[in-house]
TrEMBL record:
It is found in: Cell membrane. Pfam families: Xan_ur_permease. This is Putative permease. One of its GO terms (cellular component) is plasma membrane. The chain crosses the membrane at residues 21-40, 52-72, 77-97, 103-123, 135-159, 165-185, 197-217, 246-268, 288-310, 322-343, 350-366, 378-407, 419-435.
Length: 436
């Protein structure tokens, strides 16, 4: 593609990047989030869906969402089926409430339609602007801890324990050695400011994984035709949609997706220095609309909610700054339709190392939090710790906002709080009351 066209379309020089950097950043992001191509079909398969169909649906809907994110919004954010939301889909709606998976897909579809309207009328953008700058910085740090914890548990460094909840795993196991080896490569190359450090670490970890037997070369070759969408596509369930159950399911999807997406975009944009002097992200409405379109397409094709991935931070860390990064991720997702046996050899322990080091990189905004003003620092602190402890970006934001409003009002600083923040705090409080 002509370099002058890329420059005009993506403003590469203005954002301090180039096509090669964007391509490598996209590859790094893909490698750190490619686990979703294994996890999501497995997760929705437990709900009775055809895993092959979900695999194809996940890829196609992710690619469409990232085409919008890259060409329309021009942001380096990658999108795919959201973790947590797919668990809610399977274990709460289908297994817990006893609904058919097509019912759950219908709830996702309706949520996406509402999202599109909220994005067009800039309601979600208003929510983003309403978040105080200190909380935005805290969100970045909290996401860093959250994804570092995911990396540590995926690698086996941290394991579940009945008495202490969490404990050290077997640090001399083959799996953990792969993670440490990948992390060492990433750390050395990052210290030397080598572009693509995370990618090289993932590749190094994969090679070691092959040597140690943690992963294996595919026996059926590297090429395969994509599984059919027919078993899962266009299977929406229109009976009983005007019920309290459907409203409750749809609202939960809506709530979690709104604040997971806002939190992720906030954190990644903060790390990429994309926020303006007021702490806002110019053009965020386009990014949110891309997210909403992906959700609608995903529901139609047969997968759970499409959302912006926190792993986008890995590509941003490697220098990704424009929509060309998102397009690069989309390219590798498309390739995986036909080369999935090859991509599947990358062990989760290698990608876990990338999540751990990105957690470190995303800690930097903590220096911008005013720790001496407890009406700012305590809500920020609660936002940070609740994300990993509650295993939810959305819950971290909820607790942070409630405490922010409460402290500002009770200390006489109520003028620091925007009207939207008051409304959100009330909504969150009511939600918690209804939950318990």
């Amino acid at each position: 593609m002509n370099s002058s066209f890329l420059e005009r379309k993506f403003s590469l020089t203005k954002r301090g990047t180039n096509a090669r950097t964007e391509f490598l950043a996209g590859l790094t992001t893909f490698m750190t989030m490619s686990y979703i191509l294994i996890v999501n079909p497995t997760m929705l398969g437990k709900a009775g869906m055809d895993q092959g169909g979900v695999f194809t649906a996940t890829i196609i809907s992710s690619v469409i969402a990232m085409l919008f994110m890259g060409l329309y919004a021009n942001f380096p954010f990658a999108l795919s089926a959201g973790m947590g939301l797919n668990a809610f889909f399977t274990f709460s709606i289908v297994i817990g409430m006893g609904h058919d998976w097509s019912y759950a897909l219908t709830a996702v579809f309706l949520e996406g339609i509402i999202f599109i309207f909220l994005s067009i009328f800039k309601v979600r953008e208003a929510l983003f602007k309403a978040i105080p700058l200190q909380l935005k910085n805290a969100v970045s740090v909290g996401i860093g801890l959250f994804i570092a914890m995911i990396g540590a548990t995926n690698s086996g460094i941290i394991v579940a324990n009945e008495s202490t909840f969490l404990a050290l795993g077997n640090l001399v196991s083959k799996e953990v050695l792969v993670t440490f080896f990948s992390l060492l490569i990433m750390g050395i190359l990052s210290a030397k400011k080598v572009k693509g450090a995370l990618l090289y670490g993932i590749i190094g970890g994969t090679v070691l994984g092959l040597i140690l037997g943690v992963t294996h070369l595919p026996s059926q070759g590297i090429l395969s035709l994509p599984p059919s969408l027919k078993p899962v596509a266009f299977k929406l369930h229109w009976d009983n949609i005007f019920t309290l159950d459907m409203f409750s399911v749809m609202f939960t999807f809506l709530f979690v997706d709104i604040f997971d997406t806002l939190g992720t975009i906030t954190g990644v944009a903060t790390k990429a220095n994309m926020l303006d002097e007021k702490g806002n992200l110019p053009g965020i409405g386009k990014a949110l609309l891309s997210d909403a379109i992906g959700t609608v397409v995903g529901a139609l094709l047969g997968t759970s909610t499409i959302t912006t991935f926190v792993e986008s931070a890995s590509g941003v860390t490697d220098g990704g700054r424009t929509g060309l990064t998102s397009l690069s991720v989309a390219f590798f997702f498309f390739l995986s339709l036909f080369l999935f046996p090859l991509f599947s050899i990358v062990p989760s322990q290698a990608t876990a190392a990338a999540l751990i080091i990105v957690g470190l990189f995303m800690m930097s905004p903590i220096k911008n939090i005013d720790l001496d003003d407890y009406t700012e620092s305590l809500p920020a602190f609660l936002t940070i710790i609740m994300m990993p402890f509650a295993y939810s970006i959305a819950e971290g934001i909820s607790i942070g906002m409630i405490s922010y409003v409460f402290l500002k009002v009770t200390t006489g600083k109520y003028k620091d709080v925007s009207p939207v923040m008051y409304i959100l705090a009330i909504v969150f409080i009511v939600r918690y009351i209804r939950m318990f």
